[in-house]
Design brief:
This protein is mostly helical and about 200 residues long. It is built from 9 helices and no strands. Helix content is about 80%, strand content about 0%. The radius of gyration is 23 Å and the shape is elongated.
Length: about 200
């Protein structure tokens, strides 16, 4: 018996509607419907919640559906990849910031010209787009974030934006060039947001 069939049977045995189950699990009614008909599968956290709610063993839920197991494995691999991309982008930006600080304090062996500085800013802008994509992708495969995780994600993204602006100030100072870079950054952010809405829903 598939996991969808098990969930339908358990729900009807308790005389519950899909909406009532959805409210208990903090998901939408459409999500419950998709799980029951096999359009999509619950993530592992949701499987545990379903197991506890319906008093079904995890073994019974998981082993009864080979497709569900394959889907869970695929989602876990996708989640790991998104996590690596997410933290990798942060790491690259921190390395860039460290190099800029070393340049500013005239550390021996660390010097950079205008072109190098411009490339650094470009890499950081690209990384911000990568971060937006990785964050969205990670949320999609990992399921809804807790309020604490959402706050942490927003805080880290805000920190990265501040680092980007700090890097621009350090490299170029207050000048008309800086105004151009800031306008460019804003344009890139707007275009990235529009692209994400269009292609990565």
């Amino acid at each position: 018996m598939t996991i969808g069939e098990q969930l339908t049977t358990a729900r009807k045995a308790r005389k519950l509607t899909q909406q009532q189950v959805a409210e208990q699990l903090h998901v939408t009614r459409q999500t419950i419907s998709s799980w029951e008909v096999g359009r999509s599968y619950p993530d592992l956290a949701s499987v545990v919640a379903l197991s506890e709610f319906f008093a079904l063993s995890l073994d019974q839920l998981l082993k009864g559906d080979a497709k569900m197991m394959a889907d869970a494995k695929f989602k876990e691999e996708e989640r790991r990849g998104a996590k690596v991309m997410y933290w990798g982008a942060y790491a690259v930006n921190l390395v860039l910031l460290a190099l800029v600080i070393m340049h500013q304090y005239h550390i021996v062996g660390v010097t950079m010209g205008y072109t190098t500085r411009a490339v650094f800013v470009l890499i950081m802008l690209i990384n911000l787009v990568v971060l937006l994509y990785a964050t969205r992708n990670y949320r999609r495969v990992a399921g809804p974030l807790t309020s604490q995780a959402k706050r942490r994600s927003q805080w880290l993204t805000g920190l990265m934006l501040l680092l980007a602006l700090g890097l621009v100030f350090l490299l170029f100072g207050w000048s008309m060039r800086l105004v151009g870079v800031l306008v460019g950054m804003t344009a890139v952010a707007v275009v990235a947001k529009l692209l994400m809405r269009r292609f990565w829903r």
